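This part of the workshop introduces the protein records we will be handling. To make this concrete, we reproduce a full record directly below.
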Amino acid sequence: MGVPPLAPSAPPPPVPPRPSGDVPHIPRRDVPDGRLPSPVERLRTRFPGVHFWWGVFTFSWWAYVPAPGLGRLIEAPTPDALAHRLTHLHTRSGL
């Protein structure tokens, strides 16, 4: 008995581009889109010395607050929520 021939395989489906803060296919309205001022610029103006970024894999907004030791890493779903958490942190701990 012979083995039936293999059917030709179809090409793999196209892989969508990795999400990043500047691609239009991310279904989030609070993702950086290149317009000025960007959410990061607004946050930097309001909280000088804090480092901000959009997590391209977590789909979250992040802030690193330098402090004694390792500092603090804060995550939030939107820039406004991140600002609220930073304000609360500053009020509570004085950072």
